[in-house]
Amino acid sequence: MKLDKSASRPVRKEFLVFGSPLIEQPEIDEVVASMKTGWLGTGPKVKKFEDMFREYKGVQHAMALNSCTAGLHVSMLAIGLRPGDEVIVPAMTFAATANSVIHAGGTPVFADCDPKTMNISPESIEKKITKNTQAIMPVHFAGRPCEMDAIMHIANKYNLKVIEDCAHAIESEYKGKKTGTFGSLGCFSFYVTKNIVTGEGGMVITNNEEYANAIKVLGLHGMTKDAWKRFGDEGYKHYSIVYAGFKYNMMDIQAAVGIHQLPRVDKYWEKRRQIWERYNKEFADLPVILPAETPSYMKHAYHLYTLLIDIDRTKVTRDQFLDEMTKRKLGVGVHYISLNLHPFYQKMYGCKRGDYLNSEWVSDRTVSLPISAKLTEDDIEDIIAAVKEILA
Ligand SMILES: Cc1ncc(COP(=O)(O)O)c(C=O)c1O
Questions:
Q1: What tens digit of pLDDT does each residue of 170-223 get?
Q2: pTM of the shown model
Q3: Å from CA of 166 to ligand 1 middle
Q4: How far apart are CA 315 and CA 307, in angstroms?
Q5: In angstroms, what is the C-alpha Rg of the chain?
Q6: I need a labelling partner for 359 at 20 to 30 A (CA). Which of 117, 141, 255, 386 fits?
Q7: pLDDT tens digits for 284-315?
Q8: How many angstroms is it from 141 CA to the middle of ligand 1?
Q9: Taking each helix axis from N to C terminus, what angle separates 265-282 and 377-391, rounded to the nearest 10 degrees?
Q10: In angstroms, rounded to a whole number, what is the distance separating the alpha carbons of residues 211 and 215?
Q11: Segment holding 55, helix H or strand E
């Protein structure tokens, strides 16, 4: 094995891909079975995955789509967003959260985060409300639920809809209630790095039948619902187009993965929880700020393990840290650079540095370490050794 002269531990042979999912034999066999039946598109496995997810979340409706981004977009349309309407979103999020508002014709209005939890701050939300505000889109960042009592209180006070971006938060609960069930709609992601995966994929949940029907129609060309059945064994069915909809449907070969991943959601969660606790213990004395403690009334989904490099206590910058990890063949991530620092939002909405101080403070320091259920003991030891060596 080739030795890195600066390192006390041999450099790995293989690059550890950040967020690489654990894929097991049953989903491989199920995908092959789908290929053999020829039913690759939306079919019975998508329906089964929707039924399983609906049961898992204890809701009335679950609609599978090809991404969480698609889910957020059609959710914005389902609530009837119109040009000029504003939706409050966190600045500390992935672009898809804000872009879904823009694609539906609305305007994203950014709110700052709590620097400890990185979740949207209820105080910041309230300051951003105007006569045009229609909705709030909280993101349960890294899988830690937002302060939903305070957010729902604000939503009720100003008569606003809440659409939860649960891309990180399949397993999360707040005071015993599952994330995605607080507001009108909840949107989930099964992208490759997520807690359970379908490759690309998403799910929208709701207890509102009108929204559920709208999402089914919007997600498949604007065809009247259940149009995917038109080529089934019940014979050809006519459909009507009632909206200029989108091609957002999930395929059976994606659902073939999901129906085997979902029953393992708790097993994978437990594995990540153990890695999380181990990292916390191992990194306690380093010049970093560890993830905020989880209060007992929350269930954290442990989707991202984010360290904040304490740049006041070390000469190593966040970007140097990223480079050093990469040199050691360890994939890392940055979640996120605050949206007000990106050129598009600066150009479109006049955002600039200095607008969202907490989100910027996080942006300058944050780094996400691998925490996938796929990690081996060797992987975990490589990560711990590298972090200590770089920051010691
Ligand atoms: C907070 C957040 N929202 C939305 C998305 C979009 O999810 P998808 O890739 O399934 O469209 C992501 C994806 O990483 C995300 O992190």
A1: 999 999 999 999 999 999 999 999 999 999 999 999 999 999 999 999 999 999
A2: 0.96
A3: 8
A4: 16
A5: 22
A6: 386
A7: 999 999 999 999 999 999 999 999 999 999 99
A8: 11
A9: 30
A10: 6
A11: helix 44-57
